[in-house]
Specification:
Layout (H helix, E strand, L loop, with lengths): L5 E2 L6 E5 L2 E5 L9 E7 L12 E7 L4 E7 L6 E6 L5 E3 L6 E9 L4 E8 L7 E6 L2 E5 L7 E7 L5 E6 L9 E6 L2 E4 L1 H4 L3 E7 L5 E6 L7 E6 L2 E6 L8 E5 L5 E7 L6 E8 L2 E4 L8 E7 L5 E7 L2 E9 L2 E4 L12 E8 L5 E6 L3 E9 L1 E2 L11 H9 L18 H9 L3
Antiparallel strand pairs: 1-32, 2-3, 3-4, 4-31, 5-6, 6-7, 7-8, 9-10, 10-11, 11-12, 13-14, 14-15, 15-16, 17-18, 18-19, 19-20, 21-22, 22-23, 23-24, 25-26, 26-27, 27-28, 29-30, 30-31
Helix pairs in contact: 2-3
Length: about 425
Amino acid sequence: MGRSVKRHRSPIGSICGIGAVIVICGSAIAGKPPCYDVTAVVPKVQCPGDDPVSASPISMNDRGDVVGFYACIGAYDHAIAWWGSSGPIDILDLTPEETNSRAWAINNNRVICGTVALTGNEYGDLGFVLAGSELSIIQPFEGGTQAWALAINGSSQVTGYAGDNVDGDPPWTTFLWEDGVMTDLGPTMEAHTSRGADINDPGVITGNRRIEEGSEAIGFIWEDGEVTDLGPIAGGYTSEPEAINNKRQVVGRGRVGVKGEYQWHPFLWSDGEMTDLGLLPGYTKGYARDINDGGVIVGDCDVADDPCIGFLWQDGTMYDLNDLLTPDCPAKLIVHAKAIDRNGNILTKGLYNGYKGLILSPVYSSITDLDGDCDTTVSDLLILLGEWSKTDSPADFNEDGIVDVQDLLALLAHWG
């Protein structure tokens, strides 16, 4: 049997604009990337006058739901959720006592966690968990002033950190919240401070800890009371995890170079090995934001006086998402890549009639689309003719060992 004429390709390519939809497509033969449809996540709120809405997408689940926050100029932040194909963004009105809120994560059951400032709590934010209309407020431990709920897994277990932001007593400590019960993981950390950052579906937590007051932050994995030290980034002296997948692979950022002249670099920790992912050319800082179970990493690079640039890292190579844009594409700049789900959908922030959240979703293209422009046209025919009679070629669609008339007929059958 020959190959199916439909198949999925690795997510590297170029972007082309078609009306209000952006499509990311691939280059000729080499790489064979998929195409991506891009959906703009736009708040439905209207700021006073002509002030723009500043929307910050933060996290995404596998259903395409997005959470984050928005603000008008000079106003407080408000948590928001965009319910995938169900409709536009909703403002999450958590409680009448709310003065400021941000949604940080959402699981596949649409349970959301985040932070909220309440009237009367002068010292800062408390955590929250929102399950439908049921709101739970996460309070700090005794003597503390803040609790940050940053990540939630499929079982609605929540992690983050809590402590006192006034005088540091009690110090920041990682917590696990489950079914209304708050557990202090600090005693198992054997550290002065710790900050939980993410939790995977099996309940494994990652974050960073400082063994002594004033010492450098080093990443950890916590699992059933046991702590694994990740060590610093390769060639550096810190590691600050941002995300963990279900295979216990961790990504984040670490400092390298001379103290006072250091650079932040993105890292990958996998099976005990710490890897510096490097930077895009010309950039001095990099942050890995998320990793899916396929090991594909997204994040952004930064340099002074220039916007951040979103990147995708796969199989040892880092790609600038803006190198994938064609000149006529409505999306002019991808500045952040925030999250990637198990299906390869990527949550980004970019310039598209103002800065907006963008979801990059892979789609399937015909195997006869040799130039990766999401269609089978004359350019694909010319590539096939250039591969004529070759025995090892992507134009050998039926895999009979040679590019010939049978492959030509397959291309013509999928024309347009």
